[in-house]
């Protein structure tokens, strides 16, 4: 095993452990409903569960990899010297979380020289975990069942596909892009549409339960884990122009077989402005 493979493997082990630990911390808040909701500068909600979980993630990373950089949604950026950067989102889907919807997730990604090399998505309230590193496959575990290889579906037609996107915030973002027609076209051409998306939608694609997940606006902490997970599961993660990157302002995850049917629809939408 090469030095780089060893470095990535050790970080993947921590990413899995820390994501589960931080995610389980949020479940206590989620089940009790005993937390205050604040508003950030962009008017999006944030809770003490978000902040406490991010502090835990940062502490675990700092203990084992003190030279690594960290970027988190709630607490900003810490510089590093190793060439590795952790990108964390303690609660992706805070609107679901505060609404009592159990489809929120904890996200952990690691970049090496700006390229995403591993990712973890953990849905704490459902106890679903998926992880991947470049060249090591994608793996899925639900509850105490032994992990299994995660693979995308073999559906070849958009007409037979499940299309997932993010409700409310997602629709607002489509409108802000003057791209609401993009959503309507996808909805009309897909076999079925569901709109409690966020990162759980990408988990559905990577485990073969959906074929298409679309986000009209993404930050790095939303996207960082997604490319290695979907690629290692046999699918794709790109921006709306079809470029495989976690540094775009939008994103689409597919099983790979419907991508060519989806990209012309997305490319017809006005470019997103960061």
Key words describing this protein structure:
5-stranded mixed sheet; 274 residues; 15 strands; Fructose-1,6-Bisphosphatase, Chain A, domain 1
3D structure, described in words:
The protein has 274 residues and is an alpha+beta fold. The chain has two domains: 147 residues, Fructose-1,6-Bisphosphatase, subunit A, domain 1 (Fructose-1,6-Bisphosphatase, Chain A, domain 1), CATH 3.30.540; 110 residues, D-Maltodextrin-Binding Protein, domain 2 (3-Layer(aba) Sandwich), CATH 3.40.190.80. It has nine helices and 15 strands. The strands form three sheets. The chain has an eight-stranded mixed beta sheet with strand order 4-3-5-6-7-8-9-10, with helices on both faces. A five-stranded mixed beta sheet has the order 12-11-13-15-14. A hairpin with a 4-residue loop joins strand 8 and strand 9. The longest helix has 30 residues. The radius of gyration is 17 Å and the shape is globular. The termini are far apart.
